[in-house]
Amino acid sequence: MFIKKYITSIVMAIVVAAAVPALATSVAAQTTRYYRSNGKVYTYKKPNVYRRHRKAFNIGIGTGVGALVGGLIGGKKGLIIGGLAGAGGGALVTHKQKPKNYYRRVYVRPRNY
Predict the structure, then answer these.
(1) How are strands ordered across the β-sheet holding 40-45?
(2) Domain ranges in the chain?
(3) What would the mean pLDDT of 72-80 be, rounded to a whole number?
(4) Quick one: average pLDDT of 96-104?
């Protein structure tokens, strides 16, 4: 009975290990786009997850910190009040932040083949 579980676990680990390289190679094609203009090659790079969802991250982090501090100080009721205050603070910080240029245009030197 126990040997069957071990063999199944080992087979599943081998299947997952074989699937990871096949899935990892297709990701790079989705982050960069190339195009040519006037004989020059330009690229647009996709921003990372934090840059794309910066507002949600900041509000979520503020909520978590506020809830933690409120829970330590005031128990269950303080947890709720601290979470709301933290969410408001995170929204305020996000509103005051400088806006980012999400897609960057970068010149790529052509290769001589």
Answers:
(1) 32-37, 40-45, 104-108
(2) 30-108
(3) 91
(4) 70
